[in-house]
Design goal:
By secondary structure, the chain is an alpha+beta fold. It contains 4 helices and 4 strands. It is 32% helix and 33% strand.
């Protein structure tokens, strides 16, 4: 396991206006940092650009569980225009492989 990346919180959400969603996401970086997030990666579904997947690499599983239950996160998603409840997955990292040529 890599220090600082012991867990990943995956949020799968639908937001009709990506620009609005991204603005709120960027404005609330403090929420992620204070919640134990060390890195976030955003993906969009090419077949449905309203579907946004955020992979938050968390300090640990306990931080991820606490963060996902925070009222501030729910408020931020509402402000960002997220449509309905997001699909949430908490993943614990057990291995990592890197395949880059030197």
């Amino acid at each position: 396991m890599i220090a600082g990346m012991a867990a990943t919180l995956v949020l799968i959400q639908t937001a009709p206006d990506y620009a609005q969603w991204k603005k709120v996401f960027d404005e609330r970086v403090d929420l992620r940092i204070n919640g134990g997030c060390v890195r976030s990666v955003i993906y969009r579904d090419p077949a449905d650009p309203t579907r946004i997947v955020v992979m938050n690499h968390m300090r640990d599983l306990a931080a991820a569980k606490k963060y996902v239950q925070s009222p501030e996160l729910i408020d931020a998603m509402f402000s960002a225009g997220v449509d309905g409840a997001p699909r949430i997955m908490l993943l614990e990292q057990v291995d990592e492989q890197t395949y880059e040529k030197q």
